Amino acid sequence: MIYCLSGKIIKKTLDSVVISCGGVGYCAQCPASVAAAMPGAGAEGTLYTVLNVSENDVSLYGFATEEQQNCFRLLTGVSGVGPKVGLAILSVMEPDRVYLAVSAGDHKAFKAASGVGPKLAQRIVLELKDKVAKGAAGAAALEDLSGVSAAAGGAGSSQAIAALVSLGYSQSEAAVAIAKIDPALPVEEIIRLALRGMAGGR
User: Fold this and answer.
1) CA gap 112, 171 in Å, rounded
2) Does the pTM exceed 0.90?
3) Residue 16, CA distances (Å) to 105, 135, 182 in order
4) d(CA 26, CA 3)
5) Alpha carbon of 58 to those of 27, 54, 61, 83: distances in Å?
6) Distance from first CA to last CA of the chain, Å, rounded?
7) What angle do CA 43, 48, 53 make, to 5 degrees?
C-alpha cells in the first residue's frame, strides 16, 4: 500500500495532482478542496494516498490529511459509494462534518455532494452510524462530565477540549471552537455549543 507521497509537484488540475517521487510521477485524484489547497507546480508537497485496485483499473487518490484519508476509506466502504462519490463528499464536507452528520442522522447534509441522492445519503448514515459511534467511544465520557463543571472553574475549557478530541476532532479544531465560548459555563454546555458551532450552527 502507498501510504503517502512526498515530492515535487509537477502539475495540478481542479481534481488531481501529479507529484514526483524518486523520479516517478504519480497522478492522484483528489477532492477539489485538496487540489486547490496544494502548492503550485515546482513546489514540494505531501499527499496521503489510497490505492484502489479493481478488475479494470488501478487508481490513486490523494488527500491533504490522514483524517481525510481515513474518512475516504470509511465512505467507500459503504455499498454504492465508489471512489468518485467519496471524493465528491470530501470536496464539500470536511471529515469532522461527515462524522457529525452521521452521528446526528443528518442524511440531507450528504446530498450537497455530486452523485449523492436521497437513498444513498440515507444508506451512508445507516451503514456508518455504528462505525462512527465505535470510533467516538470517548463520547461516553460526556455523561461523566456533568458534575465536574461547577468545581472545575478555569479547567472547564480543557475538560471540554479533551472531550472533543476524544470525539475525533484535532486539538487545534477543539481549541478554536472552545475559545469562542464562555469558560465559566458548565463543561457539558461548552461541549454542546462547540459542537453546534463546528456543525455550522446546528
Assistant:
1) 28
2) no
3) 31, 30, 42
4) 13
5) 11, 6, 10, 12
6) 38
7) 120
- CA dist 50 and 13 (Å) reads 19
Q: Contact at 8 Å (CB) between 44 and 6?
A: yes
Strand partners, 6: 46
Please check whether residue 177 is in contact with residue 198, taking contact to mean a CB–CB distance below 8 angstroms.
yes
From residue 162, alpha-carbon distances to 87, 151, 185 in Å are 30, 17, 16
pLDDT in tens, 20-79: 998 999 999 999 888 888 888 899 999 999 998 888 888 999 999 999 999 999 999 999
Distance CA 177, CA 32 (A): 25
Say if CB 182 and CB 160 are below 8 A apart: no
Beta bridge partners of 9: 19
| Spatial CB neighbours of 189, under 8 Å, sequence gap ≥ 6 | 149
